[in-house]
């Protein structure tokens, strides 16, 4: 073996980009697939790049973990080919264009990194993004080298009856010795990161549809035979995605065939390889017995996301990896819009707005919980990063979720039509090219005849912007003025260095009168009122906006629908928040008002808890929540979101010094107060939201189940949870779907955490659950996760349970889903137990990061990020976290984990 990944932490910088010295127009790959020794023959047509800075003396190809066999140029063996630290160096180059053929060997069976070519459950799969193709063959493995591919796969026919690659099937047939072959051709030029192959014992469901221009398309979803009954929803989601992209963006499927393949060993959610999307089974397989409502909707979103990449990512790709958000931010925005449209269905007016708002709230929750935290920590980076050590560490919340917000703001500024004009121009200019975030911004600017120079700062500045709002009302002149000031809160040194000036912030506002209705809005200088919500274009450090003809002092509804990824500071009183929660016409801001109220209450409780003082809750807060609970004009899905308290990790993040134990005490206290003071209401809600009959994963039914199960969770926290236990036990036994069954199990676990309550019901259900679903890996993942995230108690220490489960025969650290279900669920999904003062959680974390580092650096690096915020914690915890980080830093080898822990320690 040669070319192991270099261990030195070389920093790659955006400013160092240079065009490639050579281009590869076409590639012919031949694979002889054998698990421990796969021979790859790679024949490329190369030419010198006319845009290269200078004529390079040698061709430097990237390669990792490959055994070099031979090279030939234009059909003749080539002597000047040398294996280097990073790949293969070829000299004695014969002119401007030539054919280079290379033979090499790789070992998929031993590949636990799940990057490159690997074996999972006896089948072959690939994962090439970002830099996995160089683990398959020597290549210019960078996204600005785009080529057409012809791929021949040869393998034993009995063991690998199905042979798939990108594009269209050209030919297939038998070979001597029980082997067979298939040849695939992808007519579209693509970067190497979109290459894929699959070989093995798989079956599929298929459908033929006609695309918008009337062409026939073959759609397939491939899975292992036992999973064929769990493919319908993925297929439906694919068809819906195709239709949506035709309708909303005029984008048609370009290939004759589109395939999705499910694999159980996969580092992330899914991968958009051209015409051959490879998916984590978690985002494909679903039937009512095994998948929850959330699984169903995640599958729809991820199938959409990968399909939408076919245009935003594949037809137009990234020039270099710094531009990752060009495809990811845009595609997340597209999948969010798709899900919102699917949730709204045929509904119109307020019903459609409510359905869309539910999706928006879910997305913003993720952004605020995870991306805002990232922006405040040592890994903070702009949407378009300036440097990286390991690119796989930059598939982040910032690149994806903040990137999506940056795309959404174009639509907020220009409207749907203006956004569409920008998209059309982008494809007209750049189809078939590898481009930059600047190219996208220019297309939006030119199509809408706007100067968007200032907007560039959204791509280059790290940290979460903070907008402080002051309001003043002049009763005599009937003028109401909002003064906005923008800046950044507390950020790291590195983030601060990127902050150069004010941003263009589309700031959406409404004004609410004393009767709860929106007031008509007329900005100073406008001829007529422009509706009841307006988008202020806020571009300066401080700027005032004056509304005229304002008859009464209004209550402002700020940043409606979360029109920009910023934090808003405004001194609302509790009464005003309760008023907004009850009245705001913007459903997002109704929810937001409730969250502000709850957050304020919870932080006050946490402060008391950390000083050991007694806890108490304001009656008005309880009453405000009771009103939402009773308000049947609100959809169940919305009420569920509004009645859910902010998460412990989000709350801890809001404290000047994070104290997970105090936050936990506060949140448990408030939950139990809501449970006991509104007990009868929860019971009534539980009854009113049953969904008898056949299971349907529709937004309406899912909303009801969500609200019903939230009621059950509150009831399970009563001092005397016997009624809840009975309800949960019955729900567990009678359930005809996984949403209700797993919610019942989780309620039993929650009830068992009440002091003095017995754990026997929970234990019996856990045992039953395991036996029932022993053969369903995705359900067993849930079984592990439920136990790892349980509340626990003094005599039920979750760390002990987790350590025990690590020894369970079904546990396998090499399978990322399983590792996530137990290790990650505990380390990031159970803050109170993970941050135990004895440091037991951190010791466990360190052991697992070190173990994973040797097997799968990408997964290890994700886990390693679990302690990056160590400086924000109480001194006692901080010290133990620092020790764990230092221990990890001294033992790990991968570039991935080193980058994360070194940045954390240096912060
Ligand atoms: N593009 C892939 C992510 C690849 C991650 C590589 N470490 C999935 C997606 O965003 O659609
Ligand atoms: Zn993506």
Automatic annotation (TrEMBL):
> Cross-referenced InterPro entries, in alphabetical order?
Aminopeptidase_N-like_N, Aminopeptidase_N-like_N_sf, PepN_Ig-like_sf, Peptidase_M1, Peptidase_M1_dom, Peptidase_M1_pepN, Peptidase_M1_pepN_C, Peptidase_M1_pepN_C_sf
Entry keywords, A to Z: Aminopeptidase, Hydrolase, Metal-binding, Metalloprotease, Protease, Zinc
Keyword presence, Zinc: yes
Q: Which Pfam families match?
A: DUF3458 (PF11940), DUF3458_C (PF17432), Peptidase_M1 (PF01433), Peptidase_M1_N (PF17900)
Catalysis: reaction(s): Release of an N-terminal amino acid, Xaa-|-Yaa- from a peptide, amide or arylamide. Xaa is preferably Ala, but may be most amino acids including Pro (slow action). When a terminal hydrophobic residue is followed by a prolyl residue, the two may be released as an intact Xaa-Pro dipeptide
Q: Where is the Peptidase M1 membrane alanine aminopeptidase domain?
A: 234-455
All copies of the Peptidase M1 alanyl aminopeptidase Ig-like fold domain together span 463-570
Q: Which residues form the Aminopeptidase N-like N-terminal domain?
A: 114-194
The Peptidase M1 alanyl aminopeptidase C-terminal domain covers: 575-906
What cofactor is needed?
Answer: Zn(2+)
Q: What is its EC number?
A: 3.4.11.2
Return one GO MF term: metallopeptidase activity
Entry annotated with the keyword Protease: yes
An example Gene Ontology biological process:
proteolysis
* Entry superkingdom: Bacteria
Spell out the NCBIfam families in the cross-references: pepN_proteo (TIGR02414)
- What does the sequence similarity comment in the record state about its family? Belongs to the peptidase M1 family.
Return the protein name.
Aminopeptidase N
The organism encoding this protein is Caballeronia grimmiae
Which gene is this protein's source? Answer: pepN
